[in-house]
Amino acid sequence: MNDTGATGRTGRNRNNRAAATLPIAIVGAVAVSLVAPTPAQADDTRRHAATSPQPSARTAARVAPVASHVAPVARHAAPVKTAAVPATHTVRAGETISAIAGRYGLSTVSVLTANGLGWSTLIHPGQTLVLPSAAAAASTASTSPTATAGRYTIAKGDTIESIAERFGVRQQALLDANGLTWSSIIFPGRTLTIPAKTPASTVVALNAPQRENAGIIIDVARELGVSDYGIVIALATAMQESSLRNIDHGDRDSVGLFQQRPSQGWGERDDLMKRRHATYLFFKGTPDAPGLLDIRGWSSMTVTRAAQAVQVSAHPDAYAKWEKSAWAWLDQLG
Fold first, then answer.
1. pLDDT by residue (tens digit) across 86-104?
2. Residue 310: inside a domain, yes or no?
């Protein structure tokens, strides 16, 4: 990798892979614990279900998914402007409540409340959801009866993701504040410490070369049938790794948009400098380096965990800060 992100990769066993097909779900139910960590192997679907090609025997079950956060949107969905929230939304294949809420700048809990839904309720393509106004959404998010300054008592159905979203903090920050890990479990009645809010991110404008590279990533993803969420992960990854530039240098032997390393099984250096080829590999991988579509449960992971599952970076939390911008870039270019 270059100075914008480190991508060290350990060797991978090409035979240690398995594929998964993900259902439509609102949010994941995998949560985190205040007691001894318990490994989680949940395959619940989150924000985006990929429409990827048929899984191969080499697909790896290397990363256990955690709480669902985002969901896919139909491939040719028209860009939605958060400035004007419509009264209703018709659910498309692959969408979840959290994805729909995020698309319109609403909190997940406000959309659930407006439709009388729970965290474990399933939604279906063609279903019409009521969208609350921004003011109503803010009111819903601020009236939790079990929340106090800096503390929150866990209610039935809560996940680390839903709590983090309610208070506007990063999931990793919430875990860290309570000495928890991604494989821990939380229980109703326990109290969590709520960390200070992270300053709201702003959408980063792209220059001409960055827009061109982002367009190539989107085009390749569309050709492969990758969901919008998968594209957002790829855009956020490339921005972190190379600032969306096709550079011929980086950390150790890292090169290209995604700072892929020939020594870690990604292929020949000259090939990795070909933007379309590098993007294809990010999604499809190689026999020695799994791509995003090879990662079991990737669409139920946060952007940062899904990107990290592919990149194996020395800075695993770095990708999250580009998510908001990546959605905006996709709306502009996709």
1. 888 898 887 888 788 888 8
2. yes
d(Cα 279, Cα 259) in Å, to the nearest integer? 11
Q: Is residue 6 part of a domain?
A: no
70 assigned to some structural domain: no
Q: Is residue 125 in a domain?
A: no
Strand partners, 191: 153
Report how many domains make up the chain: 1
Please, are residues 194 and 177 in contact by the beta-carbon 8 Å criterion?
yes
Q: Distance (Å, rounded) from C-alpha 67 to C-alpha 161? A: 6
* Residue type at 146 in one-letter notation: T
Instruction: Look at residues 232, 274, 271, 306 and name the one whose alpha carbon lies nearest to residue 68.
Output: 306
Tell me the C-alpha to C-alpha distance, in Å, between residue 48 and each of 98, 163, 168, 324. 10, 20, 21, 15
Give me the DSSP letters along 231-271: HHHHHHHHHHHHSS---S--STT-BTTTTB-GGGTS--HHH
Beta bridge partners of 193: 151
Residue in 206, 164, 202 with CA at minimum distance from that of residue 324: 202
Q: How far apart are CA 181 and CA 192, in angstroms?
A: 13
Q: Whole domain around residue 248: which residue ranges?
A: 208-333
Enter the tokens of residue 125: 């393509």
- The string of pLDDT tens digits covering residues 145-154 is 454 447 888 8
pLDDT digits (tens, 9 = 90+) for 262-275: 999 999 999 999 99
CB 10 within 8 A of CB 139: no
Q: Which residue do the tokens 């659910």 mark?
A: 91
- pTM confidence score: 0.47
3-state SS, residue 9: coil
What does the pLDDT read at residue 290? 96
> Mean pLDDT over residues 39-50, rounded?
39
Residue 92 region, left (φ>0) first, then alpha (ψ -120 to 50), else beta? beta
